[in-house]
Amino acid sequence: MNSKKIVAYFQLSRPVNVLITFISIPVACWIAGGTASSWLFFLLAGITGALVAASANAINDAFDIDIDRINRPDRPLPHGALTPRDARKMWLILSIAALVINLFLNSIALLIVVLSIVLLYFYSARLKRTVFIGNLVIGLMTGMAFIYGGVVVGRMERAVVPAIFAFFVNLARELLKDVEDMEGDQREHAVTLPVKYGVTPALVLSTVSLLILIGATVAASIFALYNLVFSFIVLVADCLICVSIMLMWRNHSSTTMRQVSTILKIIMIIGLISIIAGSM
After folding, report:
1. How far apart (Å, rounded) are the C-alpha atoms in residues 36 and 235?
2. Secondary structure (DSSP) of 67-79
3. CA dihedral angle for residue 205, residue 211, residue 214, residue 216, rounded to 10 degrees
4. pLDDT value at position 272?
5. How far apart are CA 137 and CA 167, in angstroms?
6. How far apart are CA 148 and CA 244, in angstroms?
7. Cβ contact 34:278 at 8 Å
8. What pLDDT is recorded for position 32?
9. Residue 1: which pLDDT band, with cuts at 50, 70 and 90?
10. C-alpha span between 111 and 28 (Å, rounded)
């Protein structure tokens, strides 16, 4: 395999998203009460999550190649660096690897991984092109990464707050991505929320999701779920959420939606940092 193809596979995985997943799950394990002596389980869980995320991204691009020729012509498949068959092979190999690694963890964690792989496949094949259901699936799967981390250490209840944070950030982000991808979705008859009902309902739901998130962070501070450091750091995230809302309503262009999507990724990272610092 030549170096260009290796780079293309790396790009196909969407390494930033994979890295966030890889970091999020061990963090979830630690927040849920895991100890340093369980570091190997943390690592295996993180690798499993990263493999599932990378495989999901690969199969998503295999199904979306026609849409990406319009919306993302620089991606490896529409660019011609890889074929849909290459992407499907990548999905299969990474999915199997995730399942094998997860055999070293507990049975509930394995069940979550199996369900995640199946649901993310059907998301790419069908659910992504439906009104709102696909957005909910991705939000739930992102939140499930934290629940999975809690399950690995046997303390699922302590992973609920970061799971809620991840769910609402990514639900908003998925809705904005649908706005960003409207042109390609319309040509390929993908019946997403903004395609069927217009941009405004998608922006309203995204805004509601982000406002609920702000409310959740305020509630976490009021009820002292974490220490005072959490409140100071999460305030930065809340301010960025307000900036995101203003930007998305000021300009509905694809460029703006992409910028807001990037800001929401940063918010997710800041949220993780606030929870980590607030748990010390």
Report:
1. 29
2. HHHHH-TTSHHHH
3. -70
4. 84
5. 10
6. 29
7. no
8. 82
9. low
10. 18
User: For residue 264, which amino acid is it?
Assistant: L
- Sequence-distant (≥ 6) Cβ neighbours of residue 225 within 8 angstroms: 161, 278
152: exposed, middle or buried (C-beta count within 10 Å: 0-12, 13-18, 19+)?
A: buried
At 5-15, the pLDDT tens digits run 889 999 999 99
Task: Give the integer Cα–Cα distance in Å for 183 and 167.
Answer: 26
Q: Is the dihedral of CA 232, 238, 242, 244 positive or negative?
A: positive
29, 17 contact by CB (below 8 A): no
What is the C-alpha R_g of the chain? 19
In the chain, the domains with their CATH numbers are 3-278 (1.10.357.140)
DSSP state for residue 80 in the 8-state scheme: T
Q: How many CA atoms lie within 13 A of 236 on its CB side?
A: 15
Of 140, 158, 135, 114, the closest CA to residue 275 belongs to 158
Taking the model in full, what pTM does it have?
0.83
CA distances from 23 to 19, 20, 42 (A): 6, 5, 10
Closest CA to 160 of 102, 226, 110, 222: 226
